[in-house]
């Protein structure tokens, strides 16, 4: 009685071994490193890594190892001073083409990394850094779309010579067209329904006046909102990369929010400034009358200027803006209906359309360039990297205009309000181009709805306090269990420690974020995980009191306690899952550890402790149960 | 070691009327307290800006205020936090102001008296470093930023809504599960006991004036989980005893169940209190309110699973028949 078949012991053993192996990297912690990541135009390969290694060797900065993966190259250091020196040095050596950022990498032996065993991912409240929740102002996106629609209605009605009194956008949303009589209105209704598919029109009358009310269809509102969000994510990702953070997170949350997490960043003022920057687009004509190579050798013709394409190639543009990104209403990727090649369709507003018609009409066969412009501001630094200050102690800043030609297609015919960019190599390129066009034009305003910054010292304190309370809590619980249940208490303690190991292992495997409340969740799990063992042991004691033989008592104890354990854990799990769904940030971290802890504790307390008891006491004649 | 050498035979159910009166009085008092006194809501729910800084030497609150008002920041709530070197500054959300920049203004104002300026080197861990016009190289800042929190008014009110919804959803989920596994009267009993615990814990926050933020809300939900766990263990035994003790009435069955599970109830309560106590004393300021709530909640949750849950089920008129498996339909019922 009370014996497991061999496979069951082996299965428990296997799970234990895997759990312990995956939990182990957490014991080594992390060491300082410098991460070299590529920017849009570059890639980090072994050549770059060798160059970086060679140059810090020359500079005499000691490093303890180097590695290369899909995120970029990493150099490890033994102390943070070397790490800082190497970062500053490498950024200068490698130049703007690469992001060189400080990072922490697992200190565990490399073979752990090969089997995917990595330490838990520490949340910002433990490692320090900035968390922003950005709110995208979708109402202004809709407002802008409605203004464009009002323009469209006017144009359509004018083209068909239908008379209307006014077209107005209502403050409360939607638009209203006023007519003198019902017949004209009904004619107009038929027309706009056909021409403007993404607007829903209804007819009405008040007194002598006849109206058409228009509203953007739900699907078009949803699409515009989605675009606005994507556009902002693209723009924010570009800017975040510039901050030189090793593992930034830019992620959509809900329908109109974006989460940004910047581990290690403390200068929130600078981060806000960079994130809050706006980009613009300018459309210019390519100067094809003059020779590019002559211009490159210093002979730039008057009225023209050299720009760079995104891949770094130079291009000569006529230095006057045809129209700007403000005139672009929409840019969507799609396919050409005839050739089914990927394209980007662009829609201009009335003013842009007028200019476009005139300029493209005169320049068929020539090229037109779209320039993406961002104003960047940098702190002036001296040779040691120390910021220069003015008399009041403020940082001196220089602003520079970063201009990049994102596309320069040939004008095939006279264009108007709607046109498309062709000759794109892939769907990806079409997507990226349309995102960039929108990022520089349809600027849906974003603002910070929530900020949480944790300074480096508080992060370190949080880790120490979390670990200390976990150790004390565990020690007290373990001691008390031995005191109360003797030998069986020791077995419950083994199960408990195993539970912590498995919990940490699962957290590490999922790369779930460990937060301070998450540590509290682990501590709480230590206290509550013994509950299952308590239920079982109390049941065994009861069975003994009822006069059952030791082996029967053990068997019945596990058996009868099972349904109680299941019920009580499932109800707790319900509370934890609700917490997970509604919680944000740190609270979510708590819910994650609590949920995983409940699941692993059911395994360790019921299966693993049973295995130990079976192995130790099963199939023998017992005089007494040591519980 | 054993808490009870044999199964105790306390007459818990006999004291149910007294318990009901005590619980009712406490709950009504709590509701009154909440209406009059309210909660010390953290900025997670009210919205606003919070800045925690640590000075190299002990800081004078008056001087901090002066520094802030020099920078045009009025109506800031300034207080020590833990030690005299740590200072907590709070600002309410002001209508029409983009207050995400407030925190930067505050940090600048606090650093102004030391004429130091943050020098971001992107270090992970360690102290923040500053520069000044006179210093030759970066040094550890006199004013260390510990944490900055800004919650916009919209996010704040959403979090309140989500918090209330979370509690409601957890209750509904638990009720459905218990009704499915036991019987509807048990579900009601479990929910009454849980609501009782949640209410008293929130009342605890009202009296102690511990700040009530997201983390404390998590504590309330954890207490719900703990309390329901405790209650379900008793219910499980009641269900079992109905099958075992065929001759006894509902009251005796319940009383036996509570007594039989008592040593487990005490044991789990003690181990959980031990770890939560460790959190309270060593977990730091961020977790103190959380741990205090859990300590209180575990005590109340243990009380309610004994004195509130089962009496409620009894008062709802549970009988043995309700707990027997449904009788099979007669053969004539099927066509």
Question: How would you characterize the overall build of this protein?
Answer:
The complex is a heterodimer of chains A (about 625) and B (about 325). Chain A has helices at about 5-25, 25-30, 45-60, 80-95, 110-115, 125, 140-160, 180-195, 220-240, 270-275, 290-295, 350-360, 425-440, 455-510, 515-545, 550-580, 585-615; strands at about 30-40, 65-70, 70-75, 100-105, 120, 130-135, 165-170, 175-180, 200-205, 210-215, 250-255, 255-265, 280-285, 305-310, 315-320, 325, 330-335, 340-350, 370-380, 395-405, 420, 445-455, 515. Chain A has about 625 residues and is α+β, with helices and mostly antiparallel strands. In chain A, the strands form seven sheets. In chain A, strands 2-3-1-4 form a four-stranded antiparallel β-sheet. In chain A, helix 14 (about 455-510) packs across helix 15 and helix 14 packs across helix 17. Chain A starts with 5 loop residues before the first helix and ends in a 10-residue tail after the last helix. By secondary structure, chain B is α+β, with helices and mostly antiparallel strands. Chain B has two domains: about 15-40 and about 155-325, Multidrug efflux transporter AcrB transmembrane domain (Multidrug efflux transporter AcrB transmembrane fold, Up-down Bundle); about 50-150, Alpha-Beta Plaits. Chain B is built from twelve helices and seven strands. Chain B has a four-stranded antiparallel β-sheet. Chain B has a three-stranded antiparallel β-sheet with strand order 4-5-6, with no helix packed on it. In chain B, helix 6 packs across helix 11 (about 310-315) and helix 7 (about 215-245) packs parallel to helix 10. The chains are: A alpha+beta (about 625), B alpha+beta (about 325). Chains A and B meet through helix 4, strand 4, helix 10, strand 22 and helix 14 of A and helix 4, strand 4, strand 7, helix 5 and helix 7 of B.
């Amino acid at each position: 009685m009370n014996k497991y078949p061999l496979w069951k012991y082996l299965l428990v053993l296997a799970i234990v071994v895997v759990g312990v192996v995956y939990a182990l990297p957490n014991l080594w912690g992390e060491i300082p490193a410098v991460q070299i990541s590529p920017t849009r135009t570059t890639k980090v390969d072994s050549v770059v890594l060798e160059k970086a290694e060679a140059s810090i060797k020359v500079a005499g900065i000691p490093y303890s190892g180097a590695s290369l993966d899909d995120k970029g190259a990493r150099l490890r250091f033994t102390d943070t001073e070397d790490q800082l020196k190497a970062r500053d040095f490498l950024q200068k050596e490698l130049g703007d083409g690469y992001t060189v950022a400080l990072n922490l990498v697992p200190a565990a032996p490399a073979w752990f990394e090969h089997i995917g065993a990595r330490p838990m991912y520490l949340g910002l409240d433990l490692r320090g850094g900035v968390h922003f929740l950005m709110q995208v102002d979708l109402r202004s996106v809709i407002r802008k779309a409605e203004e464009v629609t009002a323009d469209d209605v006017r144009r359509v009605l004018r083209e068909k010579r239908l008379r209307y009194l006014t077209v107005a956008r209502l403050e409360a949303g939607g638009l209203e067209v006023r007519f003198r009589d019902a017949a004209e209105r009904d004619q107009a209704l038929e027309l706009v329904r056909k021409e403007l598919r993404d607007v829903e029109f209804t007819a009405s009358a008040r007194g002598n006046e006849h109206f058409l009310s228009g509203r953007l269809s739900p699907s078009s509102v949803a699409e515009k909102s989605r675009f606005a969000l994507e556009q902002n994510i693209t723009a924010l990702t570009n800017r975040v990369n510039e901050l030189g953070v090793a593992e930034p997170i830019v992620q959509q949350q809900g329908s109109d929010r974006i989460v940004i997490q910047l581990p290690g960043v403390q200068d929130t003022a600078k981060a806000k400034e960079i994130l809050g920057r706006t980009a613009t687009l300018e459309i210019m004509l390519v100067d094809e009358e003059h020779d590019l190579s002559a211009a490159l050798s210093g002979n730039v013709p008057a009225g023209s200027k050299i720009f760079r394409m995104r891949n770094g190639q130079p291009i000569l543009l006529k230095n006057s803006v045809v129209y700007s990104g403000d005139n672009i209403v929409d840019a969507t990727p799609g396919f050409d209906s005839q050739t089914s090649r990927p394209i980007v369709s662009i829609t201009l507003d009335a003013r842009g359309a007028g200019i476009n018609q005139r300029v493209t009409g005169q320049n068929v066969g020539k090229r037109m360039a779209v320039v993406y412009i961002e104003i960047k501001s940098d702190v002036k630094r001296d040779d040691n990297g120390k910021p220069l200050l003015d008399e009041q102690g403020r940082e001196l800043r220089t602003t520079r205009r970063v201009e990049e030609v994102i596309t320069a297609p040939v004008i095939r015919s006279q264009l108007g309000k709607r046109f498309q960019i062709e000759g794109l190599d892939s769907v990806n390129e079409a997507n990226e181009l349309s995102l960039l066009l929108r990022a520089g034009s349809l600027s849906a305003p974003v603002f910070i709805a929530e900020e949480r910054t944790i300074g480096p010292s508080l992060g370190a304190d949080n880790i120490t306090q979390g670990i200390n309370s976990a150790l004390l809590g565990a020690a007290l619980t373990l001691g008390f269990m031995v005191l109360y249940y003797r030998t069986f208490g020791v077995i419950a303690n083994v199960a408990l420690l195993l539970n912590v190991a498995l919990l940490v292992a699962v957290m590490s495997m999922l790369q779930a974020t460990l937060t301070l409340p998450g540590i509290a969740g682990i501590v709480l799990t230590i206290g509550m995980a013994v509950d299952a063992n308590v239920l079982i042991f109390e049941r065994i004691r009861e069975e003994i009191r009822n006069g059952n033989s030791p082996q029967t008592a053990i068997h019945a104890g596990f058996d009868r306690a099972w349904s109680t354990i299941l019920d009580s854990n499932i109800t707790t799990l319900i509370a934890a899952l609700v917490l997970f769904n509604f919680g944000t940030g740190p609270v979510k971290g708590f819910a994650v550890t609590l949920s995983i802890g409940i699941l692993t504790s059911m395994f360790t307390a019921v299966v693993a402790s049973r295995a130990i008891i079976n192995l130790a006491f099963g199939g023998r004649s017992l005089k007494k149960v040591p519980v | 070691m054993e808490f009870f050498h044999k199964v105790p035979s306390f007459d818990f159910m006999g004291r149910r009327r007294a318990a009901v009166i005590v619980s009712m009085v406490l709950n009504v008092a709590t509701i009154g307290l909440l209406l009059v006194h309210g909660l010390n809501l953290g900025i997670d729910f009210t919205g606003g800006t919070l800045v925690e800084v640590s000075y190299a030497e002990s800081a004078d609150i008056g001087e901090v205020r002066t520094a802030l008002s020099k920078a045009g920041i009025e109506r800031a709530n300034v207080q020590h936090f833990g030690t005299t070197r740590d200072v907590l500054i709070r600002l309410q959300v002001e209508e029409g102001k983009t207050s995400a920049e407030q925190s930067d203004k505050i940090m600048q104002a606090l650093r102004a008296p030391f004429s130091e300026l943050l020098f971001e080197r992107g270090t992970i861990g360690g102290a923040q470093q500053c520069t000044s016009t006179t210093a030759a190289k970066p040094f550890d800042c006199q004013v260390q930023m510990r944490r900055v929190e800004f919650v916009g008014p919209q996010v704040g009110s959403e979090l309140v809504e989500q918090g209330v919804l979370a509690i409601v959803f957890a209750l509904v989920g638990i009720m459905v599960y218990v009704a499915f596994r036991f019987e509807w009267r048990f579900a009601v009993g479990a929910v009454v006991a849980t609501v009782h615990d949640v209410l008293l814990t929130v009342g605890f926050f009202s009296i102690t004036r511990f700040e009530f933020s997201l983390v404390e809300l998590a504590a309330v939900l954890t207490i719900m989980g703990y309390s329901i766990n405790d209650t379900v263990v008793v219910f499980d035994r009641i269900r079992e005893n109905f099958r075992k003790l065929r001759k006894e009435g509902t009251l005796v069955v319940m009383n036996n169940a509570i007594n039989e599970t008592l040593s487990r109830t005490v044991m789990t309560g003690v181990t959980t209190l031990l770890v939560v106590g460790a959190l309270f004393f060593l977990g730091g300021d961020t977790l103190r309110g959380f741990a205090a709530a859990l300590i209180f909640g575990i005590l109340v949750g243990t009380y309610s699973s004994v004195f509130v849950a089962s009496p409620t089920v009894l008062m709802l008129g549970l009988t043995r028949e309700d707990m027997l498996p449904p009788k099979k339909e007669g053969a004539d019922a099927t066509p």
